[in-house]
Amino acid sequence: MPRLQVYLPDDLHAELKARNLPASELLQAAVRAEIRRLDLLAATDDYLGNLAGSLERATPADRERADVIVRRVSRARFGR
User: Fold this and answer.
1) Where are the domains of the chain?
2) Which positions ≥6 away from 23 have C-beta within 8 Å?
3) How far apart are CA 28 and CA 30, in angstroms?
4) Between the chain's N and C termini, which has fewer beta carbons within 10 Å?
5) Gap between the Cα atoms of 50 and 41, Å rounded
6) What's the distance, Cα to Cα, between the start and end of the chain in Å?
């Protein structure tokens, strides 16, 4: 297993030692979580890109219908 040197701010190092936390295990978990987060973000971007590409453009009639719905909801919610 490769070794890695990590620098922590003094306050974070003090908290780590005061709580007797395993630095190596915590760092491994944090790196795994960040990699997973980035993978999920990339997958979301891919999904949304594919979804947007598969949708049809809204027609003027579609836009008018959406405007009517928004006005109805606004009146019902805000009494306008």
Assistant:
1) 10-78
2) 6, 16
3) 5
4) N
5) 14
6) 66
Tokens (6 digits) for 28: 């491994």
Angstrom CA distances, 55 to 1, 28, 33, 52, 77, stand at 48, 41, 33, 5, 30
Q: For 60, which DSSP code?
A: H
Per-residue pLDDT tens, the chain, 80 aa: give them: 899 999 999 999 999 999 999 999 999 999 999 999 999 999 999 999 999 888 888 899 999 999 999 999 988 877 65
DSSP letters for 6-47: ----HHHHHHHHHTT--HHHHHHHHHHHHHHHHHHHHHHHHH
CA pair distance 60, 32, nearest whole angstrom: 47
